[in-house]
Amino acid sequence: MKKQSLRLLTSLSMILLFSGLTFAAGEEITQIKPGFKLVPAIIMIALLCVYIGVGFLSKVSSTSGYWVAGQGIGKLGNGAAIASDWMSAASFMGVAGLLYLKGWFGLGYIVGWTGGYVLLLCLIAAQIRRFGKYTIPEFLGDRYNSHGVRMIAASVTVIIAITYSTAQFKGIGLICGWIFGMDYTMSVFFAAAVVCLYMLISGMAGVTRNQQIQYVVLISAFLLPLWFLIKKAGGVGVLPQLEYGKILGDLMDGKTALGQLDANATEALRRDFLPWGHGDFYHFVALVFTLMVGTAGLPHIMIRFYTVKNEDTARKSVLWGLFFIGLLYWSSPVYAILGKFWNPAGGANVADVIILSAPETAELGTPFIGYLAAGALAAGLSTVAGLLVAGASAIAHDWYTTVLRPDCSDRQALQVGRMVTAILCIIVIFFALHPIALIAQIVAMAFALAGNTIFPVVVLGIWYSKSNKYGALAGMCFGLGMTLLAMFGWSAEIAAFGGEGLLPATSSALIVCPLAFLINIVVSNIMHDKLDEDSQIKGDNLLRKIHNLPETNDPGF
């Protein structure tokens, strides 16, 4: 009955969406302007009703359903959920904005974020699924037989969730403000209310189903306008991803929709889109490396491997997720180039809304732009929901039910989880009202945090049998301290931690991550004799489990 209701609800939403697209077709606008917009609002409200309805129909009453969707998600569905979880406001809005603003250097975000999935596929996905519980801090706590490791990992997970969600709420605030005519503050509160409502009702089961719907919305919303945009810019309109090269060539000669640029403006634009026009080799490599290890270390992405049936499904869902993600990243440069074509001098003021300003300036009409905005909101909401699940589970499951109250009931654990979800949402709102950087830059800081803390300890926990709790604690504390130092240094505008410094907050993993690995290994070997036999046996048996080997009582595997 629930499945039939879900299908009906989804079908009705699609009818509402496309009737909204037909309604008022032809209305044109020529600039990003404030005020309530009827057609985008109809589209948005229809989708929000779907999300909340799916959450209600997916209501759960067990911790397994709330944290990992009952471990019943298939490879295609989980791949779509991974992509939706991943393709946040940073991917949907921020990447196009960075490519618009920084040109060639912005490709580092695409290369790093997609490359991280190769690390996940090769090093982590199947092994994490064989462990088969709820959270990454739980895996680390069991692997190292240490509540200290579990608590620090849970704390890092919460900090990542807050940092990452701050960027999403900035994107959501910009979108809601454009559609509903709200100011930025009201937009953030509005989006938070929607996320909390369906999160508190459904947990991971509803989030996963919503993310599958949201992927269809966001990818169709992202791709559909491109065909019309490329034709308006003089392209054929068959495959925009292969056609925008001619427009880029014209831009390099100073030819835009506004006419011929002068020599200085043309030279500045050429510098943007040639290698090292912004940044240098070191900072490009540092950015790519940070985003790769950060991707592989994100707890809210890793937790998706617990939601599937087995390790084979976990591996295949990564491949499907990478395919779905690739569709969007293949198209982001098109928006950046078309944005430059219609608005070559917009600068940072329009970078984060370039996917709206380009279609709006090209006069595509409100319905198309409204659907595009709906996709951007879907991207932000889906990621925030996954982050809040990961953050809430770290506190409710790994702190409360595992360490503080191991004898609590399922009902008590769910109540704590829902309460923590609401509290985290409030904290994120506070930080989202005072963002410290562009959307994609804030996200990159969250990735640096994951790459410097979670990634090294998980990889060594899976592949290095001598790694122990002493090394894990030392490596994680070092990575956490250095990353927070870089983030505070960025916000304080200290040159060493800025975009051109030695340790940029967005790219700190190139230096910090290898050191975290090294510290973990060195300390683990130094403290090997301090490890009790019980911890060795438990760690060895967990390693045997995730590598499909028989258990043993001999500490020395």
From TrEMBL:
Membrane topology: Multi-pass membrane protein
Highest rank taxon of the organism: Bacteria
Record GO terms (molecular function): transmembrane transporter activity
GO cellular component: plasma membrane
Pfam families: SSF (PF00474)
UniProt KW keywords: Membrane, Signal, Transmembrane, Transmembrane helix, Transport
Stretch forming the signal peptide: 1-24
Sequence intervals crossing the membrane: 40-58, 107-126, 147-166, 172-201, 213-230, 281-306, 318-338, 368-395, 416-436, 442-463, 470-490, 502-523
CDD domains reported for this sequence: SLC5sbd_u4
Location of this chain's protein in the cell: Membrane
Family the entry assigns: Belongs to the sodium:solute symporter (SSF) (TC 2.A.21) family.
Name this protein carries in UniProt: Cation/acetate symporter
